[in-house]
Structures are given as C-alpha cells and as structure tokens.
Design brief:
It is found in: Cell membrane; Membrane. The chain is an alpha/beta fold. It contains 4 helices and 8 strands. Among the domains are: 45 residues; 140 residues, OB fold (Dihydrolipoamide Acetyltransferase, E2P). The longest helix has 64 residues.
Length: 272
C-alpha cells in the first residue's frame, strides 16, 4: 500500500470514530431527556404550593422546579408591563404579556398572563387586556428564566422584549424579582378571556435514539467501505499488471508477422 492509500484509510477510521462519538452523545442526551421527563411528571403531579416554599430563599427557579404549580398573591404593577414579541404558541405567531406581580414581602415575580395571536403583520398587539386592580391570586406553572446566549433579548427595551429573564428584567424595571417566571393557569379574579392559554410540556424521548442509530450505522458503513475497497484495491493492482504484460505480449506478436512478410520479398529479389 502506498502513502496515499494509508492516509485515506486513516481518514475513514477517524470519520468512523467521530460517528461513534456522535452516536454516544445522542444516547447521553436521551438519558438527560428521560431524567428531565421524570422531574416534569413529578412536578405536574405535585399539589400547588406557595412560591417561596418551592424555590426557597434563593428565589431561583431551576430545572428541578420546571412545571411545578405555584400560588402567589399580590398586586400587578401595570406600569412595568412588558410585551414579548416574536412568540409562537401551537404554530401561531403572536405576543405574550408579562406583568410583574408584587408580593406582600416586597419581592415580585414575573407573570406571563397569556398569549395574543397576531392578526396580520402588526408589530404590536392591537389590544392588550387591562391589568386587574387590587389583590390578585395567581396559580401557574414555574419556568426558569429564558436565556438566548449572547443576545440581549431578555432585556426590556421600550416596553418590549423577546425573552423572559428575571435578572435582566430586574435591572430595567427596578424590582426585586424572582429568577424565573410564572406561566398562568388560573387567576382570581379570572383572567381576561381574550388571552390564549399555553400548551403543556412535551413528555417523550424525542428523536435521540434514532439519531444515535443513524450515527452508528454511518460508522459501520465507513468501516465496511474501508474493508471492501482494501480487498478490491489489491485485486485491482494485480489485474493492472496482468493487463500490461498481456499488452506487451500482444505487441511482440504483432511484430512477428512483419518479419515473416519480409522473407518472401528477399526470395523474390533473389529470383530476379
């Protein structure tokens, strides 16, 4: 084997190793998703509880609290309401209205009051339901603060934002906010019927197992191809040599009749 063939073979082996690593990564993600699904099922089945009892004094909604039902009582601060743009619920584009609910201890929690579907191409909702006055009791599902990497979508700008992020909202709104938010399910007094509700969580294993099978199949395909071309490549080299030898023999055979053809000529010239 020459250097070029060895290099190609090493490249195929590296490719197969990468495919195996990606397959194992998908299986790891599958395990994480199964664990998260168990937490979600447990939280959905738990009885509603006061917010501070669920998250504790840290005031941070973590993955372990996702979809847990919490109950809070306070009053809305309508002056610090934020409209969430570019939201999508059940494949419908629209807006979500987030209003801080100030609690009796002075802390506040962001409440996602509901979804308003976009009617056409408006950049802002045509009608935002009014905030209830006085004391309000909200029951909702806890969600951790949304994060968008290096983007600033979680920082309100002129009353709008793209993400719901407690710490980023707190900097602009000047409130002592919980790190996370509450996705409303029930309110007393009742929430405005103009708001659309939110779907529940997706509790399934996702496509990770089948993605893992695909990567493992690609790895086997690469190894199988390497074995096949190693065998056929060796036979191809021998066939090439045989062809060259055969070609040489044919050339020799072609020259011989020319030599015999010259013999009668010499004989004729001798007769003359």
């Amino acid at each position: 084997m020459n250097l070029r063939w060895i290099t190609a073979a090493l490249g195929v082996l590296v490719l197969a190793a990468v495919c195996v690593a990606l397959g194992r990564w998908q299986l790891h993600r599958l395990d994480e998703r199964k664990a998260r699904n168990e937490v979600t099922r447990s939280n959905l089945a738990a009885e509603p509880a006061p917010l501070d009892q669920i998250v504790g004094p840290q005031g941070v909604v973590g993955d372990q609290h996702a979809w847990r039902t919490a109950v809070v009582t306070g009053h809305y601060d309508a002056s610090k309401q934020v409209i969430l743009k570019y939201r999508n619920v059940n494949d419908k584009p629209g807006f979500e209205i987030v209003t801080p609910l100030v609690l009796s201890d002075g802390k506040a929690v962001l409440v996602d009051r509901g979804f308003i579907a976009r009617q056409s191409s408006e950049l802002m909702p045509l009608n935002v339901p009014a905030v209830p006055t006085g004391e309000v009791t909200v029951t909702g599902r806890l969600q951790r603060s949304e994060r968008g990497g290096h983007t600033t979508g979680g920082t309100p700008d002129d009353g709008t934002a793209r993400l719901i992020n407690g710490p980023d909202f707190a900097k602009v709104l000047g409130l002592n906010l919980y790190d996370g938010y509450l996705q409303i399910t029930k309110q007393d007094p009742a929430n405005d019927p103009a708001f659309g509700g939110f779907p529940g969580p997706e509790i399934d294993d996702g496509p990770h197992f089948f993605y893992a099978l695909q990567w493992f199949f690609f790895a086997l395909l690469a190894i199988g191809g390497l074995v096949y071309f190693t065998k056929t490549g060796g036979r191809g080299g021998t066939s090439g040599d045989d062809t060259e030898d055969s070609a040489g023999d044919s050339s020799a055979d072609v020259e011989q009749p020319a030599a015999h053809a010259g013999a009668p000529d010499r004989g004729l010239r001798a007769d003359r």
